[in-house]
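Quick board copy: two proteins, each given as sequence then tokens.
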Amino acid sequence: MTGRHAVALVLLSAGSAALLLAGAAFARLPGRYLRLHALSAATTLGAPLTAAALAVETGPGRAALKLLLIGGLVLAAGPVTTMAIGRLTARQGREQPR
């Protein structure tokens, strides 16, 4: 196992763990806002780490650059989308009572 493979394995493990924890939290949390909070962790941590792991594994080149660009776009757009969905839910008054 080369150093590049080890780094990719660590990044992929961390990204997969973040995605699995976010999925478990989404299934267990009661309110819509709490579920949005769980999903924002997946988009800001899990998906970019997974994309970085794939970029490291492919090695230098165009494919790695494309994967890093995708990870960066998900990292930038995820919190904005979560905030927009939260605001729309608040405006429509769809929050369930506790």
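And the next:
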Amino acid sequence: MKVKGAAYCITDGHERIRIGPEEDIFIMGFKYIAFALLIVPVLTQVPPGAPVITGPQIIIFGQQVTLTCTVTDGQPTPTVKWLRDNVVIDETYTISGNTVVNTYSFQASSQEHLEVFECQSENGVLQNPLSRTIFVEVYRSPNQPTLTGPTQVAPGTPTTWTCRSEGGYPIQTMTMRIGNSQFSSNQFTTNTQFIQTSESYTVVGTLTFPPSLANNGQTLFCDVRHTDTLTAPQTVSLPLRVISPLSVTAPNTFYNPAETETVSLICVVTAGNPTQIRWYKNSQLLPVNGRFSGGTVSGPALTISGVVMSDAGTYICEATDGSATVRTNNIQLSPIERSVSEFDIITSILNGYNKLVRPIDPVNNVTHSLIPKETIEFDPKTLRFEAMQCISWNDPRLSWPRGQPRVSLPSSEIWLPDIVMLGQEVMHDFEAKAIVMKNGDVTYCPQGVIKSTNCEEKSGSVWECNFKFLSWSYDKVMLDIHFPSVLTRPSIDMAIYYQHEEYEIVSQCAVRREMSYPCRVGTYPELTYTFVIRRRRSFCTNLNASPTCN
């Protein structure tokens, strides 16, 4: 049964329960409260205000810089962070009421130059964070300028000085002055270049002007101004000396005196006041002493007494006043050679010559060779040759610089190596002369009879005979004997040998040994010349049976 004005609700599917108007009102109120609880959180989320950046846009290199980003309002409280090149560099901030502040500090360097700093704030209400940026320029003072150029000049000579300033940003300005007088743009110009790698400017100033004597003792200044970073200009200076130029000249640049004459090489100071005169020969400083005189401030000319051929060369006169050094043109000296006779050469080389003293200490190198001329006598035990010994060595005392290439001297007048034949005194048929060359090479070829008593029969009518030579008094340390080089002459020269009618020389050889003797101290070079001789017979034809020299 339904009652009018009442509501029914089925419970558990079997029973209806009546609900009246009072219960309807209660249920409606409950539903409203639930809806309100769901919508209130959405209505209280508020986006933050736009970031506000405070801080300098132009900063000075090395300066401590602070950039402040301020954000107000926002529910929930927003975060505030700094970024550079899309990279977070600071995300710390402070909250005061409804204001959030992030303060970022750094020391200005070249890395911050022309950089963009970005401040972002967000609290999740908006899809993207709010952002503000600031563009920063780093102003840099230029490096200390440099001023280059001469400090001493001749009056009236156009001269150039260069001032250089690097590393400034923005552009620095440059001026130059002498004392307090500024140079005009006709005399001083600048060239400015932006260096991309350092993002800075380089300014090069060039000053060209001819100083006068009135400028002597004044100072050149280069001033670089950079008002963005410096309160006073950067200044560099050079002292200036303007003096009369030093000048020397050589009126004559060629001299050809004869040997033994005296000659003066003229040097004239035409301007200035030198404090020193120097002479050079072949680019080497010439000591002025002995045969050389002059070369002073009061007498600049160089005088050479007793000219010799070695004085030939290129001479230069140099003058200096302590600050400037000048030179003459090249002065050529070409002495005329005086003719030298054989008398002059022999007189010169034998003057003071001591034939008892070896030419070279500690060792003399001597070559020895044998030139047989004729077989005088042969029996089975003895062989006698008419022969020449050719002995060569160098004696620097017997050299001369010019003239004929060689002279002939009696062997009794010079030192001779005491080479003797072992077991026999060599008898010379006359005093052989020695041939002496210009460089001191001596060749001595005495001729005489040499006899070998050391002949040994080898086979049938074949004999082997030896001749041994050595120094009588000098060992190897003092006199070393060798055979001549194959390129100069053979150790045994048979070119002029006159064949014997009964005996013929089948072979010959020379051997050098170093020997010690019981009665002497030291080692002695010993030269052995061996000859193989046979009788001229028709049946003696087998040369292969002849002994060889070993």
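Board note added afterward: The chain has five domains: 7-43, 52-139, 146-242, 247-333, 344-545.
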